[in-house]
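Changelog note: in this version the structure field was regenerated for every chain. One regenerated record is shown below for reference.
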Amino acid sequence: MSAAPDTLSNLPQIICDEVSIRLPDLKACKPHAGKFSLEELKKSGLTSPAVLISTLGAKQGEGYAGHATEFLLSMAAYVVCKDALGLQRDLAAANICQVLLELVPGKNWANPACGQAQGVAMHTLISAKSKDSGVSLWAVTWNQPITFFQSSPAPLGAQIYVGGTPISGAS
């Protein structure tokens, strides 16, 4: 049995839904295709604070019986913050990243096709250009094991449930 055909395309939105629950004050939390940069931010007019979830790529991992192959998806949560009243952009970005660093490790996003998130890391993508534009851009990245093959639940054979030699006693 295979996973749903839209497992890969739906994963970023599933992650966004969970991030939005943990960070309800975000102005935006949405999927994004590929890497995110300051240039894209300028074009998009994205409101702040925001988190963008992206699948950056995949590489083949372990192979299992029945032709099940695991892939490691390279995932990123891009954190975008601008200065706001009472909180500097870099502090806001660090606070959001801290929540993501607590949330992501070990998550399978309630998706049976996914294994536990691993290799979680944080990166500051601050540059002279981003400082000049008043924006802080950070990222939390991780590897998400996923398989597109799921076995069908089936009852085990009766010989597993019943076995052994009957105990006979004196009558």
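Spot check on this record: The chain has five helices and five strands. The longest helix spans residues 7-22.
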